[in-house]
Amino acid sequence: MPANKSVDLPEGLKKELIRNRSAFDLNNVMRVRELLRYGSTGFKTCFRIVPFLLQVNHPDFAGYIESEKIPLGIHGFESSGFLRLAREMWRGSDSSWRKAITAPQPFIESLLLMGSAGSVGHTLSSDLDYWICLEPDRLDSDELELLREKLDYISTWALKTHKTEIHFYLTDIKELSANRMGALGSEPIGEIAPLLLKEETYRTLLLVSGRIPLWWATPDGTDEAGYQKIVDGLEKDSMDFIDLGFPIQPGPHELMAGSLWLSQKSESDLFKAVIKMMLLLEQVESGLQTRLLCDALKRTVLSAHPEDLPIDPYVLTIRRVLAFSRDRLKTLELDLVRLSAFLKVKGLSDTRRLDDESPKARLLDELISGSGWRKSRTDHLFNYSSWSEREHLDLGAEIKNFLLELHLKIAGRLLEDYPETIRPEDQNLSYLRARMLARYSPDEAKIEDIPSTLQIETLPQVLTLIFGQDNWDIYTGIMTTWDGDLKEHEGQLLYSCSEAARAAAWLVHNRFWKPDMKLRLLPRPGPLSLQTFLDLLETLSSLFPGGEQEDDIGRTGPQAAGKNPLLLIINLENPKAVTKILSVDLIYQKIRGELVHVSLSIDQDSLEVDKYLSVIGQVFVSNKPRLEDIYFFGPPGSAGRIIQNNLRTAFKEHLGNVKRSSLPRIGSGSGLILDTD
């Protein structure tokens, strides 16, 4: 924090800064207790050890880098509550411990934890998102790279040893203070909507170790100009504050960006997305006049009596969202908001019994008492982890559709009130809009997404694929008998479609398929062998791994990996000895991640050569593939190899990679293979 000795802060203001810091510190300590209450054993272990690992570099501990240049140390670590644990972990003498634990010039000004940690929103699936606040001009490029390497090692150790996800974000203090936040990992929201992210940062942060963010100590009601005067009047080390900047009301452009981003990003947590989307709707419908939630939280913390602590940011957020929803939403919409809050707080896979006096238990009781739900429904919600996959999918689809409705409300109001700000040619908004449309597109050729990737946590490990009545149906469980009556079954129907290729693509795209999954195929014998279907799953998994890929600006799509694979599946459900093309399924991925399946039109009365030409023509209608990106999958045996070789040579010729070949030699029923030289 730059010093400006020309500004002298009044003594009364200095005392208020100290009082407010004490209030923040006390609330922070209480929230850490809540973190330890809700965290899994691995989560709590990592939380306790990470600061120590950032303080030392030793081969006995995770994150060791064989270099003396590795930047180490968190400001004030030696006076933090983590010191005792560090002493317990160190195996050497007292003198060696003191030397190893002391960083004469600590590089980390502040270590902050973001998100739901330390709140009622913390569940068993929560991860640790650390912001490492630095002054990068103190580090050269080699030191920064060494630090990144150390952080990667720590993340790998946490996942492997304690089954806990840790994400580290190196944060430039000066850039953050100026609201230039940049991308966070693969997500561009920090670049596109920095003020939205700044507000959420101040609202959810937990100070792990280091300097306290100055804004939290400034008097309630301090405006941007007043905040800057305080910044100018403080010496760099005065009272151990760090300047992360002043939270400002986001404008229409950021609110639109936030709504688009949440519409797409909601797949990672539908229920949290509903709560966040309602906060955006409240801002939009208030004409951007609603007080920032971080300001409301700060006022509550600074004025609270010690016995009322901790003030939980999630509790405050949910209560505000419900108060707004009761006035603005229809009964069914309000119920979806309350349901989302309930499931987010409860945790989808957490079956642990809650302490009746815990903040989480009290909030759940509050949500139930205001809901009008019958006891049977409440009991059912508490047992979410035991729901059938069909129930998970149906509720997910309902919430997903609700999110789209909320986005349309927000977008419609912004376009009406601020047409000059929301410009269609804006590249950032266009990019986010494309990602949102990829998730909600009604295109029949697109492989359907499951509503939320949260369902991956409860994926069934046993499936049965049934062919009957011209349909392929995927059920949970292993069925031992099948009499053709699909109304009588032992498992839950997950998905139904008319082509086996599409069923395989759905399993892979939505990450249901794993090599260790048990799969049964009925009836047998049928139009497709189990081994062929398993081979197709492996091929699809290698070409189109589930999830998004990152490119150089954090955007997604197959082009990020430098390729755009396209798979032609030949005669999948036809007799394997046939050398003629009877059916072709085309699978490819669009730039924003949609997986597409098309059954190509094959005229069986045409000459075989015309079928090949027709396949090529249909592929190039919506694709411009390179030869190396075209893959083929056919039935096992010589007949399948003949067709694949013919198709490969035909594509080579079309793309100009070979001289004019003997395509005319292919006639109906011919088994000739085209030249492949």
Describe this structure in words.
- Strands 3-2-1-4 form a four-stranded mixed sheet. Strands 9-8-7-10 form a four-stranded mixed sheet.
- It folds into four domains: 11-248, no CATH class; 268-291 and 312-440, no CATH class; 459-547, no CATH class; 566-677, no CATH class.
- Helix 8 packs parallel to helix 12 (293-303) and helix 10 runs parallel beside helix 18 (427-440).
- The protein is α/β, with parallel strands linked by helices and 677 residues long.
- It has helices spanning 11-38, 41-55, 83-89, 94-101, 141-162, 173-177, 189-192, 194-204, 224-233, 252-265, 270-285, 293-303, 313-328, 331-346, 359-369, 375-382, 389-417, 427-440, 500-509, 530-543, 608-622, 638-654; strands at residues 110-114, 128-134, 166-172, 206-210, 212-213, 241-242, 462-468, 471-476, 493-497, 518-522, 566-570, 584-589, 595-599, 630-633.
- It has 22 helices and 14 strands.
The main sheet comes to: 4 strands, mixed
Terminal Cα span? 69 Å
- From the alpha carbons, calculate the radius of gyration and give it in angstroms: 29 Å
Question: How many helical elements?
Answer: 22
Descriptors for this entry?
677 residues, alpha/beta, four-stranded mixed beta sheet, 22 helices, 14 strands, disordered N terminus
Task: Reconstruct the topology from this structure.
Blueprint: H1 11-38, H2 41-55, H3 83-89, H4 94-101, E1 110-114, E2 128-134, H5 141-162, E3 166-172, H6 173-177, H7 189-192, H8 194-204, E4 206-210, E5 212-213, H9 224-233, E6 241-242, H10 252-265, H11 270-285, H12 293-303, H13 313-328, H14 331-346, H15 359-369, H16 375-382, H17 389-417, H18 427-440, E7 462-468, E8 471-476, E9 493-497, H19 500-509, E10 518-522, H20 530-543, E11 566-570, E12 584-589, E13 595-599, H21 608-622, E14 630-633, H22 638-654
Parallel strand pairs: 2-3, 5-6, 7-10, 11-14
Antiparallel strand pairs: 1-2, 1-4, 7-8, 8-9, 11-12, 12-13
